[in-house]
Design a protein that fits this description.
With about 400 residues, the protein is of the alpha+beta class. It folds into 2 domains: about 1-40, no CATH class; about 65-255 and about 310-365 and about 380-400, Alpha-Beta Complex (Spore Coat Polysaccharide Biosynthesis Protein SpsA, Chain A), CATH 3.90.550. It contains 14 helices and 21 strands. About 45% of the residues are buried. Bound molecules: uridine 5'-triphosphate (UTP). Uridine 5'-triphosphate (UTP) binds near residues 96, 101, 145 and 201.
């Protein structure tokens, strides 16, 4: 795309601010900017102000509770270990996020949660995976999703750390797609004078990105029937948990989610329920107050707090149209250019467009809410301080006997 056609097109769609600094740029910067512009999917902007499809009927979904899981633990665990021993499960580790709330400028998986020693989130997770693999007598494949901006750092970190002792030939990296970020009034930001602000397009893009890298074929070759999709930032995350795998298979579900009971109406956690009869997760920023506070007998009615640990049947996923998942608007702090200066805002200043893994749940015919003990399995590192922060995650790790 040349300057004239870029100018014409951007003026037509009201995004001419992207050329604001064009005159100041060097020839190679100009080339870079025009390349960014021609590679940008401007259609995502249409999602701003789009009325939410109002659901007809929202209903709570009964979880498989701790007591029942404990009663049938031997049966579930044996079934799960059997699947793992046959190589029928794999992990997708979602590590493409930007961690803006944490304010850490490296991949979140590299964050050092140790106190007296170095202990990255990646190391913590892969050591846990090794333990499960050891119990099953077989290492399961792990597909690590990165973003354009953090892929090199991530891959190098794994190399430098000897893949944390996990078999290297079982670890696959793939890069997720991007979407532009914009101000609240829909103007796409420049991150630098010559770079369009492009952010990873949310964790729901994992399947499409995995397929476009050909890694679905690798999964098939490996004989993977169950995909355990997990976030990188829960320091108590358990991967390919035999109990979880076994219960899902034994109970005949297409999909399952590890959930914790939501404690407070204000807690920022997505809720697994049914919408118009289908399993659905309503994100915390998309939830209205009435729903947040609905309660019965002193208990929150919608209490299945998802922990970003899902299990999907690979075959059913393959038959699902993953290309059609909607974009969600996430209010974020976005580094951008303002009056010639790069601004690092302290408060959210615009939208990022994100596809969410929870929309895949909605595309499944059913989903098992599998309850886990909050203090044993849920300690997300989202914020620099306060709730879900480094301090709360460290305290919970110590409570679980992990020496930091
Ligand atoms: P979050 O939604 O908490 O986003 O990610 P984040 O980017 O880590 O942090 P903030 O919102 O900017 O502060 C939940 C999980 O999904 C992954 C993250 O790496 C994390 O494991 N994720 C998120 C992706 O893999 N890609 C994305 O585009 C977004």
């Amino acid at each position: 795309m040349d300057y004239q056609s870029a100018k014409k097109y951007l003026t037509e769609i009201g995004q001419e601010q992207l050329l604001e600094y064009y005159d100041e740029l060097t020839p190679s910067q100009r080339e870079q900017l025009l390349e960014d512009i021609s590679g940008t999917d401007f259609s995502v902007i249409q999602n701003i102000g789009m009325p939410h499809k109002s659901p007809q009927r929202i209903e709570p979904l009964k979880p498989l509770e701790l007591s029942e899981i404990s009663r049938r633990s031997k049966e579930f665990e044996a079934a799960g270990l059997n699947l793992l021993a046959q190589g029928k499960a794999a992990v997708v580790l979602l590590a493409g996020g930007q961690g803006t709330r944490l304010g850490f400028d490296k991949p979140k998986g590299m964050f050092n949660i140790g106190v007296t020693r170095n202990l990255s989130l990646f190391e913590l997770h892969f050591k846990n995976m090794l333990t499960v693999a050891g119990r099953a007598g077989r290492a399961f494949p792990v597909f690590v999703m990165t973003s354009r901006s953090n892929n090199d750092d991530t891959v190098n970190f794994f190399k430098e750390n000897g893949y944390f002792g996990y078999p290297q030939n079982k670890i696959y990296f793939f890069i997720q797609d991007v979407a532009p970020a914009c101000s609240f009034d829909g103007k796409i930001f420049l991150e630098q004078k010559h770079r369009v602000s492009l952010a990873p397009n949310g964790n729901g893009g994992w399947y499409k990105s995995l397929v476009s890298c050909g890694l679905d074929k690798v999964m098939e070759r490996e004989g993977v029937e169950w995909i355990n999709v997990c976030g990188v930032d829960n320091v108590l995350q358990s991967f390919c948990d035999p109990l979880f795998l076994g219960a899902t298979v034994k109970e005949g579900y297409a999909c399952a989610a590890k959930i914790v009971l939501k404690e407070r109406p204000e807690e920022n956690v997505g809720l697994l329920c049914t919408v118009d009869g289908r399993p659905s997760v309503i994100e915390y920023y998309e939830m209205d107050d009435r729903l947040k506070r609905a309660s019965k007998d002193g208990r929150l009615l919608y209490c299945n707090g998802v922990t970003l640990n899902y299990l999907f049947n690979a075959d059913i996923l393959k038959r699902t149209n993953c290309a059609d998942f909607p974009y969600h608007l996430a209010k974020k702090k976005i580094v951008h250019m303002e009056k010639g200066v790069q601004v690092h805002p302290a408060e959210p200043c615009g939208y990022k467009f994100e596809t969410l893994v929870v929309d895949m749940v909605n595309a499944m015919e059913n989903c098992l809410p599998f309850q886990v003990e909050r203090n044993r399995e849920f300690a997300p590192v989202k914020n620099a301080e306060g709730a879900d922060s480094v301090a709360t995650a460290r305290a919970l790790l110590e409570e679980n006997g992990i020496k930091l």
